[in-house]
Write a structure and sequence with these properties.
- 75% of the residues lie in helices and 0% in strands.
- It is an all-alpha fold.
- It is globular, with a radius of gyration of 16 Å.
- The relative contact order is 0.08.
Length: 193
Amino acid sequence: MTRSGKIEEAEREFEAAMRLDPKLFEAPYYYARARKAQGRLAEAAKLFERAEMIRPEDYQSPALLAGVYEALGMAAEHSETLRRAEKVIASWLELNPDDARACVFGAINLASLGDPEGAQALATRATAIDPEDPMLLYNIACMYARLGKPEEALRQLEISVDKGMGHKDWIEHDADFESIKETPRFKAILAAM
């Protein structure tokens, strides 16, 4: 089966799961992630919105939705969603202080909100919890790109890829990397994947 055939099969499965259980969080959340990776951002936004409505305590949906809104040029929605994500992440971390993923999502969110000290504090906390996780390191690269630190962002991205981050489609469509996407080093990282 071709990759296209697998994508079409997955789409049918996501659609069926959402029809069978409209309150199922995982189907719209993972479908949104797939759409984001494909660069189908308007569809990803609608799916992340649906996931967030189903599970409002989840920090991932609003955090990812904010980036999608930004990539779509929806500035007001982007700002509003960043603020909403900040509250959800803070609440989540009060209950789950050792959640490295929540820490790094919070770091990216704070970087987007213009709080470099808060962002770096959460990134440090995340790496203290799980220093080898390639996705965590990838998200720290996103944070540094947001903070206007391209060399550190590229260094973290290289480390992340070296440790196993292999989602090339996701990297190519990640709005967090807008400031470094045209650099030769970024293009070399993608070409080597």
